[in-house]
Amino acid sequence: MNTSSRRIFWLIAVGAVLLMFGGAGSAPTTTATTTLSSDSSGSCDLADPAFTTWVPKEFECPICKTKNIFMVWGSYGSYIYQYPSKYQLIFWPFTDGPTCYSCKKCRLSVFLDDFEKIPAEKIAELRELLKTTSLPPQKERSEKESMEHPPYLDSPVSARLSVAEKVYRTLGKTDDEFWNHFYRVLAYHYDGEGKRAEALEARRKSIALTEKSLADKQNEGRRKDLLYILGAMRHFTNDDQGALKAFEEANKLEFSDKDLKPEQNKNYNEYLSHLIKEYIEMLKKGEGPRTKPQIGN
Ligand SMILES: [Zn+2]
User: 197-255, pLDDT tens digit by residue?
Assistant: First the structure.
């Protein structure tokens, strides 16, 4: 999934969230805020992980031709935009372990359908790169067992993502938005594995990329979204004063991306406004999502 399709993917669903709670008028503001608040209590039915499903499927590795079983996403709903990972502006499926595929033989590791989109001219270079990477060997399982529990799921997500980081560099990914998202996702998984120092380091990379994007005049209409990311990552790196400053600046802005329809811009702007308001209220009380469980729903 490339950066632009990912953005559209969740913006459309954000529109669906607002519609689900009663249309695009002023009513959703209150209703959606109530739903956002109920996340922290863990009692929100909509956040039940049973609503997202994965299905096993066989893939042939484009590099070593080995057959692997990976999971493809089967179903999800717009409730994923109310999961606590919204406080880091990352969403299912990227918050879920099956998302990063990894070949059991050559260790080629990338997100989802990128596995099947490796350009032929990059294969020789990737083959050499992968010789320099290491991952714990995957368990040998029969095809039936692999369909029930694909062996790649036993590798820590952060280890697979660390190989994916090198693969995407070799593929020539230079897009700051891609890498900003990548490091937020990596930090989230480090957190889930209890690797706090590594999570901090990944979030500092996200902060540096966000600051770079904010300095670029071409991103003028996206400042609200970028300042939200900056505030969130500052909060998650224990800089609450800096976070509050970013959220208060973001709160005065309106999101506008020229590639989106007015309705999509409006919906996403409202979604961000809810999150910013929530963050400001939490931070003023000395609270915030950093201290609450981020994984598992
Ligand atoms: Zn392979």
Answer: 999 999 999 999 999 999 999 999 999 999 999 999 999 999 999 999 999 999 999 99
C-alpha 201/C-alpha 190 separation (Å) is 10
Q: At what angle do helices 262-284 and 223-236 cross, to 10 degrees?
A: 30
Residue 151 located in a structural domain: yes
In a domain, 211, yes or no: yes
How close is the Cα of 3 to the center of ligand 1, in Å?
Answer: 24
Q: What is the pLDDT of residues 119-174, one digit of tens each?
A: 999 999 999 999 999 999 999 999 899 999 999 999 999 999 999 999 999 999 99
Separation of CA 1 and ligand 1 centre (Å): 20
Q: Which residue has the tokens 């469980």?
A: 293
pTM: 0.86
Ligand 1 centre distance from Cα of residue 68 (Å): 8
What is the domain count for the chain? 1
Task: Show the domain range for 70.
Answer: 3-291
Task: Tell me if 212 is assigned to some domain.
Answer: yes
**How far is the C-alpha of 170 from the C-alpha of 234, rounded, in Å?**
29
